[in-house]
Amino acid sequence: MAQVAAAEPELRRVIGDGETVADGEVDGLSEADLVALYRDLVLLRTYDERSVVYHRQGRIGTYAIFWNHEAMQAGAAFALGDDDWIFPSYRESAIGLLRGMPAETILSWWRGHPAGWWNPADYNVASISVPIATHVPHAAGLAWGKKLRGEDACAIAFFGDGATSEGAFHEGANFAAVMRAPLVLLCNNNGWAISTPLSAQTRAEALVDKAVGYGMPGTRVDGADVLAVYEATREAVERARGGEGPSFIEAVTYRTAPHATADDPRVYIDLERVEAEKKRECVGRYEGYLRRLGVLSDEAVEEIRGDAADVMRTGIGAAEAESPADIGLVFEHAYVDPPPSLAADLADLRRILGGSSG
Amino acid sequence: MAQVAAAEPELRRVIGDGETVADGEVDGLSEADLVALYRDLVLLRTYDERSVVYHRQGRIGTYAIFWNHEAMQAGAAFALGDDDWIFPSYRESAIGLLRGMPAETILSWWRGHPAGWWNPADYNVASISVPIATHVPHAAGLAWGKKLRGEDACAIAFFGDGATSEGAFHEGANFAAVMRAPLVLLCNNNGWAISTPLSAQTRAEALVDKAVGYGMPGTRVDGADVLAVYEATREAVERARGGEGPSFIEAVTYRTAPHATADDPRVYIDLERVEAEKKRECVGRYEGYLRRLGVLSDEAVEEIRGDAADVMRTGIGAAEAESPADIGLVFEHAYVDPPPSLAADLADLRRILGGSSG
Amino acid sequence: MAELTLVEAINDCFHTELERDENVMVLGQDVGRAGGVFRATAGLLDRFGADRCVDTPLAEAGILGSAVGLCMAGWRPVCEMQYDAFSYPALDQLITHVGRYHWRTGGRMTFPLTIRMPYGGGVRAPELHDDSPETYYVHTPGVKVAIPSTPADAKGLLAAAIRDPDPVVVFEPKLHYRTMRGDVPEGDYVVPLGQARIAREGSDLTLVAYGSMVPLSEQAADALAGEASVEVLDIRTLKPLDEEALLASAAKTGRVVIVQEAPRVAGFGAELAAILAEKAMLDLRGPVVRVTGFDVPYPYWQIEDAYMPSVERVVDAARRLLRF
Amino acid sequence: MAELTLVEAINDCFHTELERDENVMVLGQDVGRAGGVFRATAGLLDRFGADRCVDTPLAEAGILGSAVGLCMAGWRPVCEMQYDAFSYPALDQLITHVGRYHWRTGGRMTFPLTIRMPYGGGVRAPELHDDSPETYYVHTPGVKVAIPSTPADAKGLLAAAIRDPDPVVVFEPKLHYRTMRGDVPEGDYVVPLGQARIAREGSDLTLVAYGSMVPLSEQAADALAGEASVEVLDIRTLKPLDEEALLASAAKTGRVVIVQEAPRVAGFGAELAAILAEKAMLDLRGPVVRVTGFDVPYPYWQIEDAYMPSVERVVDAARRLLRF
Ligand SMILES: Cc1ncc(C[n+]2csc(CCOP(=O)(O)OP(=O)(O)O)c2C)c(N)n1
Ligand SMILES: Cc1ncc(C[n+]2csc(CCOP(=O)(O)OP(=O)(O)O)c2C)c(N)n1
Ligand SMILES: [Mg+2]
Ligand SMILES: [Mg+2]
Fold first, then answer.
1. pTM of this structure
2. How far does residue A263's CA lie from ligand 1's centre (Å)?
3. Which domains does chain B have, with CATH numbers?
4. D252: Cβ–Cβ under 8 A, 6 or more apart, which residues?
């Protein structure tokens, strides 16, 4: 039987290693753009590192670490216009920062406070999807719906390697293809779904091989190379806007951190590989690239880091200053127009908590 | 972006057209085998044609016609051993005939009579799957389970072109691949899911393109060419038994009949195409092939058709002779060890139907 | 007024609602070219175009999931599930997203989508074409549920569902799609959610029902005519529930039989009984009795009549209660 | 006897059952290498090998669907759903196949599979880690449902589920996985399905509960100590239900408060109330009261305590009933 050839086994890369592999470049990016992209990376990195600390300090709850995933998030987001929609999973919880969302909002989400609620339309960033892959059909529907309205916007959905095993991924991808929805499917292949390695998730040689089954183009990029991700996303966005439908991007990286703060990967992961990957981590790689290009000074780095640290300081301060959520919120927003029983339940609860029992 | 090349756009064929295209052959098949295969085809064809008549006569209920699908059913089944399991959809309702299941059983199924129940282990034929694609994970699980036990058996799952859009297909196919389950995925691509054409089902150039995404080989055959289907299945079965895991076969045919007896395709189908396809229908094509080979006489044809007619006469007679099902069956078999409330409910129902009201 | 079958009334509703609001669109399997396997969406493709009446791939979670996204793009999608039991692949989207997304945005974004499907048995069909799955839906926070029992309500409740700002699920009694005819107001017509209907007035006993159990209950009321004055209360919307109407009827008659086609355990009839047990205790002159489908898979159609609540079973329950 | 936490008791059960019957196998996300995210399956991969403790792809319908096939090949698969709300993608397999396949073979083939999952709230987790989905399961014909409330029952009911010839779903109160310790019999230990447990004897009022609502009800009983003698009935198996125990306790005390964490509408508490309304009318000295989660999405964790049934709410309901 014929085995269909796998797509692009090679990873697309732009950033070199400063030694044997030469740096490439992406046309159309000004020096200011390049620095702005660095700023995004640093903001995400800072968010992530501070969050782990905040978690240890008991200031936020369980947190899904995204260290070494910043390049795919920032690179992809940079290729979008403000009208384009982002559908994050929990792994991209802080991507709203790149759209002007206050850190407080995201920190509140992880603090289990309703101040973590936002209106997706305010930032064109959908709510964080906790159940794996279930947001892929949403992104397909939004992109399709925008197209039906004659709007120019497209959408991007982020999901993991494990997510590709879910029926929801499959149905969403196929819907997008059939409707020629302007959608970018960005698969964060970090090699692990909690403790499950990619080899126990699929027998495909590469996840990008799934694209052909949906009749959409696929590309495989180094997910720790922010410029490669940017470029691939830009191409996919151009296709989408051109009416050619969705594309699949497999961004390959490696999960160097625990799945989340509650996880202990030592029982399943190869720690040597983790150490090696940490050395190739995405923010440092881009910083090296910019320095080799000569567009990033020590002062600029310091300023950018300082700004990011400020964002986080302000964010956690604001999150902690939120007044405790009123229990009335338990009953609000379940419906626009709620069944009358909810108001009765709330009144009853207030009576009991007020101490006037029975 | 790189578009992955589609697999085998050509359909594999063995049977010629008696004129410009020469007949091929499949090695390893004796003359007796070839005639036995013909017998299977005629049995299925007779079942189908008689069922439509029985339906019009009000002797069976709604019925899913499989005219021109016989080649893929008989061809694939012929490549299996008796220990191998078949997972049919409603479109392969009568495939049990090829495993010695009485026509009465299947007719009873369509008559809504519990005599249509069978023990899958008696024939290694699973129950008919009514909900689309949901049996694909069952087939994957059975095949995997047999392998875990060190048994040699493999499984085949039949499903339609529409079924490939369902999450259940995706999850089942991926499971089979990951577990290296000895499974053959046989996609009956008849071009339609009720009124929905393939072009509204997928943007893939061919359904077989999905195989690569699961890391399994795929092949595309003419589904009305019983020998091509047989050969492709035999190869897939060999792979499965050899421990190499599942394969995907796209068998391409065309639905020349209504979806089911309740359907009126005139509102959506291209009737000229239907007429053209009817001329190329699978049983006649194979009969022509055998006649050109000189292994099928008029007498043999007559005898085979007569035998099949007998099977159906006996079957409908037996189905109609079934005594009406006792209402006790409503409560039986829901559980091996039922909650006590079921017996109480039955007693109550008998009391009421017995007329001793209140 | 026009005399229409139940499914014609649904079709009429669609024509009215798609005309009325250009954001309403219909999607599902075979809803376009074929006009729906029951022809509920007939004529929409021709009249409103392929953008607003969409034949989708065969993927229920894809249908409902993309409808969530369509809402985010400003549409009011109406999703058809081809049959009751084929809606189950979409339950995950229903429970994790459809019922929660508005909440998840702190009430800032609305998801005015409708899910509708033919439901129920008695139609001599192969397995999985006969389920009454309303419990799965009504137990799910954030969604509303309506079940009409007449052609006029089929139109009016569907219109209410389409116009409602919240997700609403409408179950349509397929048994009566073509066999029940009735007067249906033309044009704009809405039956507000949350209002039960007294299908028949009575004073001795109340039969509480919805969907296809309403005409059955009316037959049972007829059968009891000489013995008792039987009220039939058509619940119409399971959520929001018209609890007042339920309690008022219970207070009036003091005797309640609940008729439900779905399996008994934790069916919606249990909720109705529980409300009565909590709030009508002093009004009741006897136990709250449920006549329901049984806790078994819906049977093969030759014996389905034994599964379905029947006039005999309802009458039996009513008589026993009257003599209590 | 060993003193174990609730999750240790489950792990102990697995070791015993996999040792006892070589057809038992475990499958799910992260059950192997990691031993489960709560470590319920710790040690099984090493001890019984990768064929009998399988890390699956991330696909719940694939897990449950392939378990159906595994049964057909003679296995007794035990499927882990990683969290309550992540079991929803498998509901379609549950309703269309797990609950019907035995029936569909005319009782000739058995499907002795087990589904287990951590359920319930109070653990300060992000959304969808807190659901109490038992209604979806218990309403489904053909499946049984058990919910333990103690370490010993967690072991014994899981063992019963694994050995049962029918599909059984076991919900494990994750809130008490590590916080509750108790004596657990070593080795072979089965708590038969269908037998409720009187967690505490009393004569004035019965609190009916299951899972994590049982210890809560015991606290409420403590709080009421000076005022009334409160019985706490632990339902243990929702299907088959020990109706006798329920009715007996209702007959004894005449007052029943049902405590349920899941949303109220058509929750299992409604079924319990409906049974009482039908069969215990003459025994009851007051309404049947339900204290439940609310009909809203499970809230963000900073306000989750207001959602969960609390000692205050149970005490309030009990007091009102006692004064009725
Ligand atoms: C439907 C569903 N099933 C299970 C889970 C539990 N879970 C949370 S994260 C995770 C692994 C996801 O892996 P992957 O898709 O590779 O994304 P990553 O976490 O690596 O970014 C699992 C199983 C879930 N959130 N949703
Ligand atoms: C889950 C589910 N959704 C919808 C249906 C209703 N339905 C029955 S057959 C059919 C079309 C199936 O098309 P395809 O998979 O191509 O198989 P074919 O009928 O052509 O053999 C549909 C939508 C179903 N049976 N199951
Ligand atoms: Mg991953
Ligand atoms: Mg087809």
1. 0.98
2. 13
3. 3-322 (3.40.50.970), 325-358 (no CATH)
4. D203, D206, D231
